[in-house]
Amino acid sequence: MDFPGGKVAFTPEMSFISESPEERAHCYRVLDEDGQPLAHSSFIQVSKEVAVRMYTEMVTLQTMDNIFYEAQRQGRISFYVTSIGEEAINIASAAALRFDDLVFPQYREPGVLLWRGFTLQEFANQCFGNRDDYGKGRQMPIHYGSNKLNYFTVSSTIATQIPHAVGAAYSLKMDKKDACVVTYFGDGGTSEGDFHAAINFAAVREAPVIFICRNNGWAISTPTSDQFRSDGIVVRGQAYGVRSIRVDGNDALAMYSSVQAARVMAIGEQRPILIEALTYRAGHHSTSDDSTKYRPANEIEWWRTARDPVSRLRKWIESNGWWSEEAESELRSNVRKQLLHAIQVAEKVEKPPISDLFTDVYDVPPSNLREQEMVLRETIKRYPQEYPGDVPV
Fold first, then answer.
1. How much is the pLDDT for 125?
2. Cα-flanking dihedrals φ and ψ of residue 5, to 5°?
3. What's the pLDDT score for residue 388?
4. What is the CA radius of gyration of the chain?
5. How far apart are CA 311 and CA 299, in angstroms?
6. Residues 22 and 231: beta-carbon distance below 8 Å
7. What does the pLDDT look like over 349-382, one tens digit per residue?
8. Pairing state of beta strands 102-104 and 243-248?
9. Which of 55, 124, 239, 281 has CB 3.0 to 4.6 Å from 216, enough for a Cys bridge?
10. How far apart are CA 369 and CA 387, in angstroms?
């Protein structure tokens, strides 16, 4: 019989749909733990140039995380979030996209920006909030953004970027652009209403958007077992009528292949695609967190070593004769030197002026903002010892 949405068959049997499938959705993988392709694996071939660049960028991201994390611990920056354990999701997905594709990140995707050409100096400027920071020091560290690289500025509030991404994708559809939108979020983001409203809108309006969920097992200290009873995130796509796939997020080749295939479908068929990337947050949620308070330290260490996505890709390129121990040592040494230099430069650049707190919203500042600026300046003048001396007044 015809019902809204299509024909439905009748049955004399009263049968409830099970709350869970008999078998969990399979996870697409190309490389095993030793970096060797699985037998009969289906994946998009990667050239030596792309593979080596993917690996070098993953090492750069890993090194950047370690050095900036230590800089925060030394009190040189106020906050930091690492992507340790999730480097493959960052870099491999970025490699599979095109420059015209718009990126709406959460806050654990700096590798996408790194792949697109954001320099180590630009990362350092943002984390130190100096005059050269594109956000003019008004954002927390790691809240990167770049107009020229089509990377929308990070927002701390969880999942707000997902509806924005769908709206942007619908705009590309209306303008008949040969591009798509990709948005990243964690498993915790799918517990927000923004995710459900966005994926439903994308399905109904057939927007060319790729949803990439980094299911790393934890929404800060909340495990997935306390968030939902469904088989992860991938089944939610089917519930909303969105083509979906579950991928090993620690396998760079699997991520590269799935995102590239998703892009072809999103643009060619004008449809949304959901990718659930299974991974593990091998670092603390942020520098404000101590994850050993809610999960075993040996579990974290096992994922850092046995399931490290960087080591897995290295084994694969080495087996192809594309990498060596000498190249490894040179890369890590050079990246470390470049990062330390970038930090030294960023620290010496003066901070944005106080006036930047009140600009870039209104063409002509309203009276209440002018009053606030005046009061702030008077307060700084009265209590100079309470304010940083390196901020131009």
1. 98
2. 105, -10
3. 86
4. 23
5. 18
6. no
7. 999 999 999 999 999 999 999 999 999 999 999 9
8. unpaired
9. 281
10. 20
What is the pLDDT, as a whole number, of residue 386? 93
Helix then strand then coil, % of the chain, to nearest 5: 45, 10, 45
- Nearest alpha-carbon partner for 198 in 188, 211, 186, 187: 211
**Residue 185, token pair as written in the block:** 């979020």
pLDDT value of position 3: 79
Residue 310 structure tokens: 């960087």
Who contacts 8 (Cβ-Cβ below 8 Å, separation ≥6)? 1, 2
303 in Cβ contact with 296 (< 8 Å): no
Round to whole Å and give the CA distance between 360 and 374.
18
Q: Rounded distance, CA 360 to CA 381, Å?
A: 25
Q: Distance between CA atoms of 111 and 45, rounded to whole angstroms?
A: 21
Predicted pLDDT of residue 1: 67
- Residue 119 is classified by DSSP as -
pLDDT tens profile 126-177: 999 999 999 999 999 999 999 999 999 999 999 999 999 999 999 999 999 9
Q: What's the whole-model pTM score?
A: 0.95
User: Interhelix angle for 87-96 vs 309-319, to 10°?
Assistant: 60
* Residue spans of beta strands (DSSP E) within 264-330: 273-278
Instruction: Tell me the one-letter amino acid at 370.
Output: R
Active site residues: 70, 156, 285-286
The span from the CA of 86 to the CA of 366, in Å, is 44
Contact 238, 244 (CB under 8 A): yes
Among 24, 29, 16, residue whose Cα is nearest residue 252: 29
Pairing of strands 243-248, 218-219: unpaired
**Predicted local distance difference test score (pLDDT) of residue 198:** 98
Please name the residue that has the structure tokens 């579950």: 246
Helix (H) or strand (E) holding 209: strand 209-215
pLDDT, position 212: 98
> How far is the C-alpha of 25 from the C-alpha of 245, rounded, in Å?
9
Could you identify the residue written with the tokens 């942020």? 286
- Given a cut of 70, the residues of the chain with pLDDT beneath it are 1
- pLDDT reported for residue 391: 84
CA angle 225, 87, 71 (to 5 degrees): 100
Picking from 264, 284, 283, the residue whose alpha carbon sits closest to that of residue 273 is 264
- Phi, psi of 229, deg, nearest 5: -110, -5
